[in-house]
């Protein structure tokens, strides 16, 4: 084992071992993004859950025809696309923070984050592709 | 013993100084709401991953999509849907609280009453939701007779 476990103790904010703060403002922007996307997602996701789980019999009425009917409207296409992107990035950024906090080896952190980024790219990319190329007459 | 004068005299005083009430965050309610926020967020992320994949089957064929969506219609799945709703609702309401703590001048002062509000709102919405969903699942399982 050449990799070392990072100690759980943190350096003091001004100790020389700590990298200089504010090399970029990325963390600030990601923090702001979590707040703003959170507000928008609140309406999109709770609305989505209300429609899908409670109105007119909940999940039981959902099938291919239901989705085809829904996505014939640009309003719902836009709703779902916005929700997909915001939820993907909000959740991805949240998990990035969790990984940064708890992985103690640099290699673990690297691979967990690679896995995370691949899965976010896969889901957001695939979802976007499906929304733009959906064909109700595919059958 | 007598040689340590000033510092020794101050030490017990410093130790005895009581912590100001409300400044201890670790182990307090605020910390647990933070833990719960993380757990509900991570759980929702994993659901989202699966959900995007199952919805993407509409691009494969209507049969493929309908087959997979059938699994969501099993009465037992109501419990998972209820769990998802519970996680998302807490995450949403506590998220508003987090924003108020961050952006509202009095937010940190009222973080605890706001947490009770979040929990009360959560319970108030979860009860009718659970009743509605469980009733549907139960009538489906036993109502056929």
Automatic annotation (TrEMBL), chain A:
Highest rank taxon of the organism: Bacteria
Protein localization: Membrane
Annotated GO CC locations: membrane
Pfam families: Sdh_cyt
Protein name, entry field: Succinate dehydrogenase
Entry's transmembrane regions: 32-55, 75-95, 115-134
InterPro entries for this protein: SQR/QFR_C/D, SuccDH_FuR_B_TM-su
UniProtKB/TrEMBL annotation, chain B:
Subcellular location: Membrane
A GO CC annotation given for this chain: membrane
Chief place where the protein resides: membrane
GO biological process, alphabetically ordered: tricarboxylic acid cycle
Top-rank lineage group of the source organism: Bacteria
Keywords attached to this entry: Heme, Iron, Membrane, Metal-binding, Transmembrane, Transmembrane helix
GO MF assignments: electron transfer activity; metal ion binding
One Pfam family per UniProt: Sdh_cyt
Cofactor or coenzyme needed: heme
Xref: InterPro entries: SdhC_prok, SQR/QFR_C/D, Succ_DH_cytb556, SuccDH_FuR_B_TM-su
The keyword Transmembrane helix is annotated on this UniProt entry: yes
TM region(s), chain numbering: 31-53, 74-93, 113-134
Family statement drawn from the similarity comment of this UniProt entry: Belongs to the cytochrome b560 family.
Annotated protein name in UniProt: Succinate dehydrogenase, cytochrome b556 subunit
Species: Allosaccharopolyspora coralli
Upper taxonomic lineage: Bacteria, Bacillati, Actinomycetota, Actinomycetes, Pseudonocardiales
